[in-house]
Amino acid sequence: MSEIERLSSKPSFGARLTLLLGSIIFLHAAYSTYESVSVQKALGIAAVVIPFDIKAESVFGLFVVLLGTLFTASPLREITWASEYRKRTIDQIDARPSFVTLNHRGPLLFGTSTETSSGKQ
């Protein structure tokens, strides 16, 4: 498999399944937290305490989501100037029309170049 094929290939089924499973676990932990808080408020318990198993499920779900994201993400690419200029020709690099001066702005900035003496002829 060439480097280009590897970079453009889709994530594997296992990686996507890991991401889906982690998302389900994490969402279940969120729902369990909501239910636990609701029950404790209905019973009139002042200090709401989230059980340890829900905390552990949340951390585990987050870990599995991160693992799935790591496996489904595309590889990082270089963002240096050298890697950008490696793809361009010298004509593309030197073609900078924004630096071309088509007309001189001297008269606009400094007035006309013809001098008129104020009192001398």
Task: Please characterize this protein's 3D structure.
The protein is mainly α and 121 residues long. The chain has helices at 3-8, 13-42, 52-72, 81-85, 90-94, 106-110. The radius of gyration is 33 Å and the shape is elongated. The mean pLDDT is 81. Belongs to the membrane magnesium transporter (TC 1.A.67) family. This is Membrane magnesium transporter.
**Mean pLDDT over the residues:** 81
Structural class: mainly alpha
Major β-sheet profile = none
Q: Name the helicity range.
A: 55-70%
Shape: elongated
Strand content: under 5%
Query: Which regions have little confidence, pLDDT < 50, spanning 5+ residues?
Result: none
C-alpha end-to-end distance: 86 Å
Using the CA coordinates, give the radius of gyration.
33 Å
Question: Order of helices and strands, N to C?
Answer: HHHHHH
Count of helical stretches: 6
Total DSSP E strands: 0
GO cellular component, one term: endomembrane system
Subcellular location: Endomembrane system
Protein name: Membrane magnesium transporter
Pfam family, one: MMgT
Give a topology summary:
Layout: H1 3-8, H2 13-42, H3 52-72, H4 81-85, H5 90-94, H6 106-110
Helix pairs in contact: 2-3
What is this structure, in a nutshell?
The protein has 6 helices and no strands. The protein has 121 residues and is an all-alpha fold.
Name a few traits of the molecule.
mainly alpha; 121 residues; transmembrane helix; membrane; transmembrane; Membrane magnesium transporter
